[in-house]
């Protein structure tokens, strides 16, 4: 305990007397009991000095001389008790004169608890002093106990706050673990179904004696299920790119109504809407948007409505201008959304109840991807439902385009390509075989290489028009192949197209820096590949 703390825990007695001899005598008398009763003595010679000490300390009792020049004892007592902090300090007046009843009354009115007349009888002074010092010591102990309890309360409050925080973090971690486990289970389910169908169809095609119709059906199954797998992977990659800020938009002014109708038409042609009543009401509204990404948004919301609306149900798409915004509402008569789920329906991996048969399917990332893409377009998306069995409505709000002039969008048709010599540098034997058969069927001469070094040797010997080069190959990567071909004067004019599973903007930049003319992300759609080959041929003609 510090000296200051010790002093604060010892009762104090203030002696006030203007006569030096009387003051010394009183202090000496009190000192006899100081060790026994444990208190501290402070002495002053005027009422003004007494007031200063009262401002600094709390006293067990004040022994106050009545007859002092300047401020007398009564005036000093009145001043001491007029201050709230010192109003309860007991004061014993000390006087050499026998006070009459009026003087005693005046003293008590000013806060005196007793009178002592000189010469003072020591036993009486000790008895009175013992009482007041004891009361002060109890007061100090109570104060210390209160301080200790307050400190302990603060410590317990801090500990409780830490515990509540830890409980919250653990609950959050448990929820994340549960969500991750459920997502992995869903992912396994969603991947195994199409893989099982593809595997069964491939096995059927390998059997002898199957009919032409059976073969055609098997091929349709493979195409359809491969498309499903591609959509799953694309959704996962797109959401990852958006959340990491790795997606860039190519915006232009578009008629939002045409885009909405096109999305519905695509789903209708694919047979997705045949069991539902779909109605579209769309005013011509222009927005600045990336066409591909906005089609993804509308299709995902339509897919969600179709998924959760029973056969025979209705889905309405309403597009209107609202102030400076375009407002697209997609409502359905489906199973609706519970209030508990509504608040987190756009969270990643969130879905409703997951029965074992999972008739709706999906990974629970479609709506999260919708929100991220809409936000990239400076818009917002909200969900609304009156509850289970009462349908749901999703509303997209996008700023209207400042350019009100309609821009005609024409579909690029890939012309029939003249026969080319194309080199495939691909370490995956199945992928290489499929591409060879596809391009050969279209009339092109195909050269093959199973690794980078072999690709360089074939290119140097055969001088192909175009080389399709895989990036992720063992030994020598596609980047190194491109750099080697560009460094050789004989092969530097070959058109190089990178084919890779890495589709971030940084991957494309790296491919361009390595010397590639184009960058295609696997799986490569035939139309996309044909467009790329056509562009390479056009560039070769223009460069000639």
Automatic annotation (TrEMBL):
Its EC number is 2.7.13.3. GO terms for cellular component: plasma membrane. It is an enzyme of class 2 (transferase). It is a multi-pass membrane protein. PROSITE patterns: HIS_KIN (PS50109), RESPONSE_REGULATORY (PS50110). Residues 12-133, 421-537 form the Response regulatory domain. SUPFAM superfamilies: ATPase domain of HSP90 chaperone/DNA topoisomerase II/histidine kinase (SSF55874), CheY-like (SSF52172), Homodimeric domain of signal transducing histidine kinase (SSF47384). The modification 4-aspartylphosphate is found at residues 65, 470. GO terms for molecular function: phosphorelay sensor kinase activity. It comes from the Bacteria. Its main location: membrane. Residues 186-402 form the Histidine kinase domain. CDD domains: HisKA, REC_2_DhkD-like. It is found in: Cell inner membrane. It catalyses: ATP + protein L-histidine = ADP + protein N-phospho-L-histidine. Keywords: Kinase, Phosphoprotein, Transferase. This is histidine kinase. It comes from Paucimonas lemoignei. The lineage of its organism: Bacteria, Pseudomonadati, Pseudomonadota, Betaproteobacteria, Burkholderiales.
